[in-house]
Amino acid sequence: MIDADLAAIYGVATRTLNQAVKRNAMRFPADFVFRVSAGEKQSVITNCDHLARLRFSKSLPWAYTEHGAIMAAMVLNSIAAVTMSVYVVRAFMRMREEPDEEQRNDAAGLTRSRERCDMEESSRIHSLALAATRRVLFPRSRR
């Protein structure tokens, strides 16, 4: 995901996102965030109409993997970013909760429970990301 889109999802300026990443560089290894090449930038501009504003930008944008996007939520202070980081932490907490007595006695039940939890969490995260992406790509026109 390009930095401008991620910034819009988290409700901050692109510059603010990039500054937060620079201040917390150790939290963003190369497999979390990387600089887009000039050729990739041109391809993105050509294929993504909503990124046409990048055409005149002198700097190359940053691209975030899903891990980088989650880490960005941890270092930003916008309401959307804080909400997302709390949601992610709670999801991990639920996955680590102690299984009840019946599940302890039934290893297959425990496996099914974890798979169901993983699917529910994945579905919720995908729904949130899809809704945020739609808001960025298809903003409502102001009347």
Write the layout of secondary structure elements.
Elements: H1 3-10, H2 14-23, E1 33-35, H3 38-47, E2 62-64, H4 66-75, H5 79-96, H6 101-105, H7 107-137
Antiparallel strand pairs: 1-2
Helix pairs in contact: 1-2, 4-5
Description:
Helix content is 64%, strand content 4%. The protein has 143 residues and is mainly alpha-helical. The chain has one domain. It has a two-stranded antiparallel ribbon. The longest helix has 31 residues, at 107-137. The radius of gyration is 19 Å and the shape is globular. The two termini are 30 Å apart. The mean pLDDT is 77.
Task: Summarize, please.
This protein has 143 residues and is mainly alpha-helical. The protein is built from seven helices and two strands; from the N terminus they run H-H-E-H-E-H-H-H-H.
Are there runs of 5+ residues with pLDDT below 50, and where? none
Q: Can you give the helix content as a percent range?
A: 55-70%
Query: Can you count the helices?
Result: 7
Strand content range: under 5%
Mean pLDDT: 77
Helix/strand/pairing category: mainly alpha
Radius of gyration: 19 Å
Terminal-residue CA separation:
30 Å
